[in-house]
Amino acid sequence: MKSPRATLDDDYVAFFMDLIESSGVCEELAQDREQRRAQDGKRPGGRRASFDDRLVLTMYLVLAATHTPLLVTRMSELIEHRLSAEAKQMLGIDPAITGDPLYYRCWRAQRSLLRVIDPYPAPRNRRLTKAEGEAIDAARNDAEVEAQRQKITRVMNRLLEATIRLLPPEVLASWGGNVSIDGTPMTAFAREGTYKSAEFESSERDAGTYARAGDHRGDPTNKSKTYKWAFEIIIGITAPDLLEDMTFSAFPNLAVGVSMDKPGVDVAGNGMRVINSIVERGHPRGHVVTDLGYLPNSVPAKFQNLLRKLGYKLVFDYRRDQLGKIKTFKGASLIEGKWYCPAMPDDLVKATVNYRGFGDPDKKIDAETYDLLIAQRSRYRVRVKDRLGAHESEGGVAMRCPAAGPSATAICPLKKVLGNSAGRTVIHAVPENPSAICTNRSSVTFPAKLSEKYGQELEFESPKWRKVYRPLRSMMEGFNGFVKDPNYEALSVPGRRRSRGYAAQFLFATLLLMSGNLRALVTFLTKEPTTQISTKTRTSRRRNRDT
């Protein structure tokens, strides 16, 4: 039966084909396939396949962009009923192939593509017994799995990069590298344990139990209705540099990096896969904003330190038990990411605790009082004199008392007043037994390890911190909702992407993110300019297809 939907414009199909080709992934997949055949000592038998990786990726991207389910049946219907003769010729499709033969060629071409990039190969045409699944897992080589993980992550991010490069060069150059990262669940089409016998695994064995709370790893033995059998998609999005007075509309929010795993598994590792891919593609490094699962609660050696070495600036929030004074060193106190004078008043030390209602109920403060206390707190901050080592995460930092030096922000009886003292805070409650931060003439070296977990770039809850953290977190949540909209990409609707396996689901997630990027780009490139960034795009609204 012929599809009631209209034939697609040839230029529309050509745009998606060119976009896939510009990513360079088809050449990489072809090389990988040849290398694998050479290693196995096999030569391809029979005639050359007419349905290749380019065709599969192009057709699936067209389906994603037209908000159609990513199913092999929809791909074959698209080819048979919605492509013109010219478009079929452009894609190398024999117009005489129709019906079931067309469907099976599409299915084999998809399987061939996934086989090259799948890090977790397993039979997908039937439900496995638990014994079969355990045997497959035991036979896997960890090094080979990791190599395939790197390959599929690289391929998916190169596909995303093709949409990023659609931005005018002068607009892309204005991006300072600010990134917001978060994981979001992508519910699997299968469910765990729906088969009557406990002998069998879920038909989607690569997924995991997702719980909304905590680190998102649900207890498989708990059959709570709030749990989902899902994958977790880790997305990094672009964000404007608001500290440089860029407006919210100066740069679009686009998915610039992606990774995928079971929920709550290797949080730091997946975050770094996103970041490393962004860096490898030559993008700048700015601020990184995440939720509490990544920062500050990762192991520093696996996340915080790696980000700092790459040149990123960390901005994040804290759990309630991480607010206020965390530790002391040479008399200074580490409070919400910065080191402060030991004489700082208690109401400043506990400002955030009291404002958020975690302290003494009688000391609860309002927002206006909190802002005043945060402003006063900065004058007690121990200041950086010199950074030691190649990176802040190595060696240490030479710090000095806020009352020391010509640029001091405080006046203390223990320090000689240099320069103009106007506007400085006067310290009255000098410690009875002053420590090194008070008595050292020049500075104190603070080992980087002391603040590697909780230290951050901007002073917590300061105007600059709020200008970065709050908008970037909001943009991330907004983008997740944007690509999950059931009227468009419907990332959270499992029935629209039914092929089983990690590779298939990762591919579909990436194609849907590409579709979301294209929608965001159309909106961005067709709106009236609101910034000083010079663009060559038209200001009049054009048809989405033409854009």
Describe what you observe in this structure.
By secondary structure, this protein is α+β, with helices and mostly antiparallel strands. 38% of the residues lie in helices and 12% in strands. A hairpin with a 2-residue loop joins strand 7 and strand 8 (332-335). Helix 1 packs across helix 3 and helix 8 packs across helix 10. The radius of gyration is 28 Å and the shape is elongated. The two termini are 31 Å apart. Residues 530-547 have low confidence and may be disordered.
The Rg value, from CA coordinates, equals 28 Å
Main beta sheet = 6 strands, mixed
Span between N and C termini? 31 Å
Give the % helix: 25-40%
| Residue share in β-strands | 5-15%
Provide a compact summary of the structure.
With 547 residues, this protein is an alpha+beta fold. Helices cover 38% and strands 12% of the residues. Strands 1, 2, 3, 4, 5 and 6 form a six-stranded mixed beta sheet that branches.
Q: Could you list some keywords that capture this structure?
A:
17 helices; disordered C terminus; 3-stranded antiparallel β-sheet; alpha+beta; single chain; 547 residues; 6-stranded mixed β-sheet
